[in-house]
Amino acid sequence: MIDSRFVVAVFSAIVLMLSLSLVVLFLTYFERKALARIQQRKGPTRVGYMGILQPFADAVKLITKEDIIPARSDKAVYWIAPVAVFIPAFVIWVTIPVARGVVLENLDLGLFYIVAVSVFSVLGLLLAGWGSANKWAVIGGLRAAGQLVSYEIPFIMSILAIAVLGQTLNLRTIVESQSQFAYGLFQPLGLFIFFTSGLAELGRTPFDIHHAESEVVGGPFVEYSGAHWAVFFLTEYVNTFTVAVLTVLLFLGGWNWPTMPFEGLAHTVLSMMWLLLKTVIVIWLIFWIRGTYPRIRIDQLMTFSWKFLVPLSFINVVLTACVVFYGLSLWFLSVLSVLILSGGFWLMKKSAGLGSEYNTVTIVSSRELMENVQPIHVADKDVS
Amino acid sequence: MKLHQQVGYDPDSVDLMINMGPQHPSTHGVFRLVIWVDGEKIVKSEPHVGYLHRGSEKICESERYNQIVTLFDRLDYVGNLNNELAFCLAVEKLMDVTVPERSEYIRVILCELNRIASHMLFYGVYGLDAGAMTPMLYGFRERERVQDLFQRVTGARMMHNYIRIGGVKEDLPSDFNNRMVTLLEDLKRGVEECDQLLSGNEMFLARTKNIGILDAGDAIDYGVSGPALRASGILEDVRVTDPYSIYDRFDFGIPVGTNGDCWDRYYVRIEEMRESIKIIENAMKDMPNGETLAKVRRIARPPKGEVFVRTESPRGDLGVFVVSDGSDMPYRVKVRAPSFANLQALQLMLEGAYLADAVLILGSIDIIMGEVDR
Q: pTM of this prediction?
């Protein structure tokens, strides 16, 4: 006799897997189209109507490719790395609600669980870098470790401020308590920190230093091919989706804000659509940043985290706690947040010496140069 | 003082030696840079060239003069016309040929267009080196426009073989003027768009400002030329200081940097594109009608002697030295390739840089391996 809970668990895991895969397939298409739009190209157009089936063609191509394992690699580590990256990205979804009733397990410690699981992803990248027996991969893996651990702190601290504001760690309750005003309105500072460090956690432009094509040739993934690489690829997009959804749930009111007046089935369906719409907007922002920004250097990345985001995130938590404890108006918090955020930007702009006076190139007229400089004449031809 | 002396390092004991290239995505060809890194900092670097050596100079000795023009196309394969021009100028000087006015103008117009196309390639690739994807597409869009025109005029998009000894291959097509009007409009807009997309970006500034500084003294000592030299603050442009063809008839600006860092080298090229457009506009205004090819024997036999000509190619001071023994093939051809000379300063600039900077520094001197290895 099989336990019915076991059957439900397996069934929901399969459903989750399938829906996440679908989301990823859609995201790759969406990203290619979005980038193409920014870059004045058309993107995929051949496979299916407007290239809509391109992700499936890509998937088939990746799966049927030869899976090369480098001769000198540490086989076990090399094999396990994609799995170690993929599992946390997948398992995190156990407690993320997409509508009031649509969640696998509504944990009371939901936020804590998410934070705990997401930290694991750095392990897989490090394993991949080490197992590949490739110097570029090692450098990439170490970069990933440094980067992900550094940005974990502001990431968690901004989540903590939300927990203070919502007085709970349960994601559904957090969303429900944003029915009047989204927390992003009270905490623009927190939203900025969460989104920025989320980008860094994802390794997305401008923080894509650990798999920077032009520097470390793909970093930890340099030796991977075929299905193994596909798993990394899948994970990257699942994570992108996760961060976007979390941004919406924590800061933009999830399905609840500004209003969701329906009940029953209509509520569930419309909630999911509303959440997805908001998520797509956040993801579009991520793609937009990818299309326009260059990447920053590792020391700048670390400076940005430790000297800018971390102090700001601590200030954010203390500020939120004070406002909540003394029962002040939450709008007071949002005003302070905006002030601190703009102050931080001003400081950053000032300290990096990136004022408007960046142009150090002057133009000299050729007439002027000709008059002032004695022309150097090469000896005339010598016919002997 | 070198970095490893400052920090008391013995470079042979540093943990990680990495081969950057010849199969690295951002070495711009088959260039190999061996670097020793301490974490992310470069302690020592060693460039290796020669992977694209085809013996072009030696092949020249067994080809007739007008066949050699095609070999020069393949040296700097991004600035083809400028290379053709350099060789043809050398042979014309040896033979005392006067080139028809019209073909002088055609040469200048096409060479400046070629410069824009080359700098647009630099712009795109430099964006990619810095990690931005979009500049690549913007740069190539403008480059395609120029290449489409080249295709119409010369019949080829890259290896033109259009500039001949004594003039140019054939007259311009009838719709040339109309196409140029639209092309120049598009290019002007394109340069502004490219400039706005990348130049002032805070992250780009943070990545390129004060990186890979090459001061004026070192630049001269290493024989650096072209935009890289001007970025270091030296006013030197062969088009002006040793004018060839009809460049002395035009008034144009020469962009000069102050710091000699990566950003200056980048922006000098952007400004140069604007100035090239000005030259082309003036040349289009004054272009006379008439012959395009002087009366030269089909198989050129320059008199005995030797000649050196230098021109300003998109990468810098391109010198061509030809020795003739009076036959229909040169006795010796030597090319002073600007990329090769500029590359020498790389080691100096890499001192104390980060691994990520190495890519940007190498990108900022804009080497073409076909020219470095010849």
A: 0.88
